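User: Sequence in, structure out. Go.
Assistant: Echoing your sequence, followed by the structure tokens.
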Amino acid sequence: MLPPVDDPDLLVGADTLDDAAIYRLSDDLALVQTVDFFTPVVDDPFDFGRIAAANAFSDVYAMGARPLTALNIVSFPSGTLPLDYLGRILLGGAEIARQASATIVGGHTIDDPEPKYGMAVTGIVKPGEQMTNAAARPGDHLILTKPLGTGIIATAIKQGKAAPEIVAAATESMAHLNRAGSEVAREMGVKALTDITGFGPLGHLSELCRASGVSVELWFDSLPFLPGAVDLVRSGVAPGGTRRNLEFVEPWTAFPGTFEPWQRLLCADAQTSGGLVLCVPEERVESAVAALVERGTPAAAVIGRVVQAGDVMMRVSAARI
């Protein structure tokens, strides 16, 4: 464990389990910093680069901030894979940086038996305008901006069980920047925002509950899923990370007694470059959904709501309450 940080200019640190750190430089300017990288989740190197970069930028968007610069982080087996493979990864990352209006200013590469790629991203936000896990309030509704199921589909790809159209849909969702969702959140006055990545929907919502001192209701029939995800998990395809996520959150989660194991797994699926969850006041939900649809986010689904802290941290219902 790291020692606690005592710095009044550290506006957001590790204590709230947020997606990035925020450090104040002046009354009008704060830096947002994050880093993320991982092994390939798809076979195509260009698409892998796009996905890894979009995932790294997502942490800045989840704080309601604007990315400025990025540093490439690369592990590459130079003796076993052609350098063209690395070039395609970097081109994919550069394309996403272009879409984010951010500048890649350098990076670092090491020789490693297994390829890995990601970015360290720096953004800016005005102090007081940042969004955080710690600002959800009872009555807020949860709006998700991407469909779920990338963990299941990535495992199916490794097992050779994912049809090309399933891979294509998941790839485009993962490579889609969360820029529009963050912009809509700012326009709607949202104070609490998180992205859904490796800990899955319930894992990241549990962090929001802890930081904000609230509970949440999740409506299963309102959750959007990528094509093929439900059929694949029902057939037994699920990554180890998803199963561990479920084991971790089950003590704090109430599921319907009729839920089957595959339904529980979907609620905990470990996402790669997943969507944002906006905590939107009830009176602005309709406007927020309309704005997200207009901006072309992969989903704009109202999946639950924030409630007063109760006997369980998270309660999953089969249908909207």
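User: And one key feature?
Assistant: Residues 158 and 261 are 22 Å apart (CA to CA).
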